[in-house]
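hey can u check if this looks right to u? its 633 residues, i copy pasted from the old doc so theres a chance i mangled smth
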Amino acid sequence: MYGDKNTFLQLEKKRFGIKHNMQIKELLTLFYQGFRIFPIAGNKKSPPIAGWQKWSIDCSIESINTYCNAHPESNWGINCEASNLIVVDIDRHGDQNGFKEFNKFIEKYQIETVRKSLKTFQVSTPGLGLHLYYKGTCATKVGIIKGVDIRSKGSYVVAPGSIINNKIYTPKSTMALILESPEWLLDLLKERKEILVNQIENKGEIVAIEGSRNSTLVSIAGVLRSKGVNYEGILHALTAINKTQINPPLSSSEISLIAKSVSRYSPAVAVPASEFLEKSSVADAPKLISEFKGDAPDRKWLIKDWLPLAEISSLYGEGGFGKSLIALQLAMSITSNNKFLGLNVGLKIPVLCVFCEDSEEEIHRRKNMIKKSFKDLFNIINEDDMQLFLWPRAGKNNDVAKMNKSNNDIIRGSFFFELEQALLNMPPGNKLLILDNLSDIYLCNENIREYANKFIKTILGTFISKYQCTILLLAHPSRAGVAGSDILSGSTAWSNSVRNRLVLVRHKTIEDAIVLTRKKSNYAKAGEEILLKWNNGSFNVIKENPTASDSSDVRSSLAYIMRDVMIMSLKDAARGLGNDVKLINKFSKKSLSTIERYLEQMLQYPLEFHNFIFKVENKTFPDKKSKRWIVKQ
């Protein structure tokens, strides 16, 4: 925007009156280069500010200036994943000499190739270490080799210009020169993963003696964390290994410190430690058909045939059809273990409902109306026992995914990280996440197949793999989707990428009734329907053929039946005489009240109504002044 970087820095300093310590130059340069930065406590490299991932994505010159003026002593960090960075962190302290181990690893590569790769952006650290910056993302690996960490997904590095004990994180080359990940780095990630997996699977062969105990346990903890193991799981595993394979064993406080340090980093997949140590770590490897032994486990459902567990389902419907209301009914049924639209609930689990279009007051009113409609069910339930979390988000930024203009791809938005934190705060185990609706959380082009597929499988899929979520995504169809039969919006990937798609449509003959249809399902028969009618603030199931006890439904059904019979007869008569049937088609689209009025007039003036079909003088149905059919005498 400013052309020259130095001009940019000078203008921004002058504009915001930035006067504090020397690191502001590095901060503005980082921001100008597109790095996602956030504050850290002064004279420290941890902990980061609460919500550092969201802070870094939302950061601006204004927010940097405001924080710097309020906390001039603060250090700063770089969000590696959001900045598309892989940082090789080489340390030299205690019994670890990362440079020595690093040199041993790269000596097998051509020296000229290594030299070129080391011309990337570098930062020297206060502990005589070194940060090597490369483009890309990968799983964070703590202790990938002795004294060397890889920082990327879910991790950060201290930014240049930060100060620890009066020593500065100092850039050693220009920030603009960040190279692509070299061959030796890609090999290191692959090779070391295989080595550590083999060590953990063959637990009896892990033997560490004094001088390598810490690095060995940190490496094992890093592999466990990358697989999603939490602090308690890592601590349990390290304690067991420390007792049997470490000579001499470390103290319990040292083991706890390693577990806490490693568990700070975001996991890739959430699984218990016991499962990881008992199962093969190479989960993606192909399997022989002979390995699939015995009976397959039964499929699990939240609502049998309608809502599969641990999958993404979508619910499409026009605005005002009641998607949000049905979603809240579903949430209340699941958290209270009551029937939903006459269907049994498979599991009672916690539910988080994100309503992007509704205020707190509106959600409160809906909840009370549902309880009132189903008082026999819900009034005996203690709401404190319903682990139902309602999150009204009307008027707020709800970007779970947005466009990254620098590479024309979709990335996680700031609300993704807020949502992730909310899921972390919920009870562990299976949970249902309801997102209302797609247009609010997906700020990208719905017509691009690649984006839709990535959003469903990668971004929303994260919530399934990490937090054991089942997801129901509410969405509006496009005009073309409403006009056609698919009731969809944008690319067909929105249907193809989910395992289950439900739609709400208006019933063709019964007034004020809607139909919930299983439009697509990978696990059940598609096309099944539930007929619903709104009543006193909630939806109730009604029968396709209303009973005599419901006089209004009977009247409606008879009116439509009479209309259909009458139209068929009139069309046949008109065709036989060579007359145009367009007016009859127009009549067939009239509302229930209009049809009933026509029927009354037909009974009152049968001859005029009959003659009307053959000798139309005016297209008005009927004459508004005389309230009679206009016919040619």
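The domain at 301-541 is CATH 3.40.50.300 (Rossmann fold).
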